[in-house]
Amino acid sequence: MDEFGFIDSIKQEAYMQPSLIRGIGDDGAVFSSEAGKSFVTCIDTFVEGVHFSKETMQPFHVGYRALAANISDLAAMGAEPAFYLVSIVIPQSWEMKELSAIYAGMKELAKKYQMDLIGGDTVSGESLILSITVIGRADKGKARYRSDASVGDVVFVTGTLGDSQAGLHILTNQGEYRNSNYFIDRHRMPEPRIPFALGLKGLSRIALNDISDGVASETNEIAEASNVTIALNDEEIPISSDFVQFPKQLQHQWKYFGGEDFELLGTVREQDWEEVKRIAEKTNTRVSKIGRVTGGYKGHVLLKIDNKEERLEKKGYNHLSR
Ligand SMILES: Nc1ncnc2c1ncn2[C@@H]1O[C@H](COP(=O)(O)OP(=O)(O)OP(=O)(O)O)[C@@H](O)[C@H]1O
Ligand SMILES: Cc1ncc(C[n+]2csc(CCOP(=O)(O)O)c2C)c(N)n1
Ligand SMILES: [Mg+2]
Ligand SMILES: [Mg+2]
Ligand SMILES: [Mg+2]
């Protein structure tokens, strides 16, 4: 199969989004804007040897995880997913059936959110790289920013933290672990929190960020963007029941600095916290209050742990720490 045959093979037979005018097959895709809506776009890249290896993921997971990370950014912006474009760099060593499986992984998740694949690019290269652009829409004035935290807000997080790195650890280390499939799935097939994020549309103000690099890094991002201090409480950080089987030091490392959990971190007014809990229940999403926004130092995160309060540094997965 050549480049054009490949493009034909990944093309959807029918599109789901009514605003799409022209999808795959021309120099660009065309879709119409909608009254009262703003577009939101995000791009993230997924690289063999950096984000995955043949040891940690099957081709299906590669596609699923790469698109999930992008949809998670749409959730963090309060946007409803609509379209995606995929740029793929393909090494000689990857077979056509593996490439089809990558697209099957993306398609499974795309179908869930009625997203259409409307374009991309195909080139050969040395390692497998997927770069995905997603396009979503938010009601005008309702995109959610990292800069919207205010003193007095409740800080919350969805799901449990550290599971993805526990899964990666299981996949790359020998050993017997309880519930290993749960942790492996959390690493390979994270669930973007779209229903929860869209359920919060009614709130007048909420700061949101998604956890790709670890809650320490993302909490610092909100604190910096909003010019506030955020105080977290270690005892309130949610972990899954079998997370305690790992050494204490690894638990600490993974939940604060591990990343790839793709949970949402947010801050809301105290009086809106009940509504957040109601929407979480309605959308089957676990949510936990983990701290408070306070005044004082601007752009700092403090962590109460073992009866001490210390600074939680903006450390975590960083591609350019050299
Ligand atoms: N190479 C780049 N060129 C232009 N803008 C960039 C580049 N890299 C990042 N950005 C922009 O910087 C901001 C922060 O991006 P960042 O990638 O840190 O966020 P994220 O996608 O939520 O996190 P992650 O990549 O860890 O999932 C975004 O506005 C992003 O578009
Ligand atoms: C084989 C293998 N080795 C290491 C890791 C760990 N890892 C890679 S990227 C990243 C942060 C998120 O990246 P980004 O900021 O690009 O979203 C993390 C925690 C992995 N997933 N697979
Ligand atoms: Mg990014
Ligand atoms: Mg993000
Ligand atoms: Mg990152």
TrEMBL record:
InterPro entries: PurM-like_C_dom, PurM-like_C_sf, PurM-like_N, PurM-like_N_sf, ThiL-like. Mg(2+) 1 binds at D44, D121. Residues 151-301 form the PurM-like C-terminal domain. ATP binds at Y103, G120, D121, R146, S212. Its EC number is 2.7.4.16. Belongs to the thiamine-monophosphate kinase family. This is Thiamine-monophosphate kinase. It comes from Oceanobacillus arenosus. The lineage of its organism: Bacteria, Bacillati, Bacillota, Bacilli, Bacillales. The gene is thiL.
